[in-house]
């Protein structure tokens, strides 16, 4: 393996996702194995601008693979949107001789990384770290599996109480622009309806189905809503249901930030470990500005600009299946 670079940095940026620590560990340990000096940037691009950059050792990443959150911390950094901010950030890398960067985050973080790379000719490798699974070029993102399992666990519990009281529960899960958490958790918990930004929400159809179920005395119902659904989230759906079906015992539950936390699942730990390992191999092979993804269980590289710009379409077959299984 050609080894033109000798110093690299890694950071986590944007919304945190379980499995980011496993990815940091993999980047650091693989980098050290190949004789690189590896730096950790604290609080994403903020730490780069503010010069909070620390040399990492093997022990810096000991005992973290099972922990949620990120030991490097994450942040959203306004200064990085400006050319001056990015120049200051780059100078802090340059003075340490850092020649490559691994960015673990979502599309915003990749956009920032790509700008830095274009402006200062610095190779950047992106690892998809987001619970939303909204990046093109990968079947899964780091944190998605854990977030979905957390949602499934919570919704199963909600169904128990819904059943005890014959209630309709409208559960909101995360996903501002992508409905994958709602889709997966809704299917896995047998939800009667799943509302996602990628599919039109026909509230009249939902009311008609609920009303018909009310007549059949099927009183337990579960609707899973992605926060970014065009209808406006669980509370808005509940308002309409209460207005049209006042006798239905309707409750709302918003799962919120619990979906980001917790110990990563085995799937996320392995995904993050594989991706971190390949990020270093990419830099050593002279690749730049690609996202390391996973396609059909094989590592796949996608140019960052495509990973950011393109969107995966939810297969119509999934939506058809949801309808059939809920009937
Ligand atoms: P998530 O998917 O969880 O929201 P993300 O990586 O998309 O994660 P953002 O908040 O969009 O999170 O972006 C994280 C940071 O990346 C921003 O705070 C900013 O520092 C940098 N960034 C985002 N977009 C740009 C941009 N257009 N130019 C420069 N920097 C950017």
Explain this structure to me?
With 327 residues, the chain is of the alpha/beta class. It has two domains: 7-143 and 264-309, 3-Layer(aba) Sandwich (Rossmann fold), CATH 3.40.50; 144-260, Phosphofructokinase domain (Rossmann fold), CATH 3.40.50. The protein contains eleven helices and eleven strands. The chain has helices at 20-33, 45-49, 83-94, 107-120, 144-165, 180-188, 203-215, 234-244, 266-284, 304-309, 316-326, and strands at 7-12, 37-41, 53-55, 100-105, 124-128, 168-173, 193-195, 221-226, 250-254, 290-295, 298-303. The strands form two sheets. Strands 3-2-1-4-5-10-11 form a seven-stranded mixed sheet, with helices on both faces. It has a four-stranded parallel sheet with strand order 7-8-6-9, with helices on both faces. The longest helix is centred in the middle third of the chain and has 22 residues, at 144-165. It is elongated and about 70 Å long. The mean pLDDT is 94. The chain binds adenosine-5'-triphosphate. Residues 13-15, 45, 76-77, 80-81, 105-109, 111-112, 115, 130, 132 line the site of adenosine-5'-triphosphate.
């Amino acid at each position: 393996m050609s080894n033109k670079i000798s110093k690299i940095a890694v950071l986590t940026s944007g919304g945190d996702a379980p499995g980011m620590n496993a990815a940091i560990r993999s980047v650091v340990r693989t980098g050290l194995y190949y004789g690189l000096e590896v730096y950790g940037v604290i609080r994403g691009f903020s730490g780069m601008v503010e010069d909070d950059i620390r040399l990492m050792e093997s022990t810096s990443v000991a005992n973290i693979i099972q922990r949620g959150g990120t030991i490097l911390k994450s942040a959203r950094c306004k200064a990085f949107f400006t050319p001056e901010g990015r120049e200051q950030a780059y100078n802090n890398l340059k003075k340490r001789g850092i020649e490559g960067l691994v960015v673990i985050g979502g599309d915003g973080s990749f956009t920032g990384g790509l700008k830095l790379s274009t402006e200062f000719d610095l190779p950047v490798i992106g690892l998809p770290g987001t619970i939303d699974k909204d990046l093109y070029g990968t079947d899964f993102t780091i944190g998605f599996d854990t977030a979905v399992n957390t949602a499934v666990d919570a919704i199963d519990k909600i169904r128990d109480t819904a059943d005890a009281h014959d209630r309709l529960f409208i559960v909101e899960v995360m996903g501002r622009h992508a409905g994958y958490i709602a889709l997966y958790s809704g299917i896995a918990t047998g939800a009667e309806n799943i509302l996602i930004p990628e599919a039109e929400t026909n509230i009249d159809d939902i009311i008609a189905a609920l009303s018909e179920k009310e007549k059949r005395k099927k009183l337990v119902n579960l609707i899973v809503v992605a926060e970014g659904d065009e209808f406006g989230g669980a509370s808005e759906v509940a308002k309409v249901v209460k207005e049209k079906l006042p006798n239905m015992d309707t409750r709302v539950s918003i799962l919120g930030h619990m979906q980001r936390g917790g110990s990563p699942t085995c799937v996320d730990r392995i995904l993050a470990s594989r991706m971190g390992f390949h990020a270093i191999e990419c830099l050593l092979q002279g690749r730049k500005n690609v996202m390391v993804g996973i396609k059909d269980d094989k590592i796949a590289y996608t140019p960052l600009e495509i990973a950011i710009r393109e969107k995966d379409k939810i297969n119509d077959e999934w939506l058809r299946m949801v309808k059939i299984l809920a009937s």
